[in-house]
Amino acid sequence: MTPLSVAFVGSDSGTWTIERMDAVAGEPLPPARGLTVLEGPAARRLPEEADWALRGVTSNERYVTREEHDALEALQQGLGRPQATCSALIPIRKSQAWWDLSQDERRHLFEERSRHVAIGLDFLPAIARRLHHGRDLGEPFDFLTWFEFAPADAGVFDELVGRLRRTEEWSYVEREVDIRLTR
Amino acid sequence: MTPLSVAFVGSDSGTWTIERMDAVAGEPLPPARGLTVLEGPAARRLPEEADWALRGVTSNERYVTREEHDALEALQQGLGRPQATCSALIPIRKSQAWWDLSQDERRHLFEERSRHVAIGLDFLPAIARRLHHGRDLGEPFDFLTWFEFAPADAGVFDELVGRLRRTEEWSYVEREVDIRLTR
What we know:
homodimer
């Protein structure tokens, strides 16, 4: 995949209505009522009325094996499904201790210890997902994960984030905001 | 390591004098006589007289195991050694086929097939090195590697790049420029 720049812009209005913003760990974000998702060159020209903007870039995979990739790809759905009128934006920052680990140590924590991929697979195809990386851009969050799902799957989504937050991997999360939206 | 933004700026003059610029694969860069290395916030304000500027960011490790990391760390030297008056900047872009591989496939090509770390270890402590990532920044090169060494080790450095270019990993390199400098 060619990296795609994306900006999530919080302001008074937007394509998505913000229903809730919870600071799960660390500092909250300033309040906003709506969210707009800008992609590609548009992500560089931010609207003046923005309350905040979080940027990230889709990138190559960092931990997933070929077998896991193929299992995910066989089940996962794209963004923009008509029935997926609920979404969540979960910005996360991991600790210095995480980033100081070597690649094999991070992989071991990610999957062999925490089952990140295996948990995600349990929620396909209901929950669509796109990951954006911000750390190398100098952004306050290392990852911005965007999820889309139907209203009937909102409880299922709560179960997904609950299971991930109980993993060993999550002990390295030092800042997390959970933003829930509808359109 | 916290990501550090770096810009390599080619112009009429600079801290480093450009001795040679060879297009090893793909498009060359426009000619320049000098190079300046800007770091941190300074990397965002480019001098007006620049002929070109290449940007990257130091980042977390992507392939190296803990054992390999410790072996490298025990031997490698930092930048700025007084006797290291020779340097090289080697910008590289890999093919879409490389980026479409999964993490385990890229790791296998990088080390088990191509011995990238093992080859590098053979040239420590003579050759100091810093890697910068540009792909997620939308830069024309995926990697900018900066090397520093003493004039007496210039032949040794040629051997290092020669060995790397003969690896299977290098069959995925679609653009490479080799810039040699002195100060």
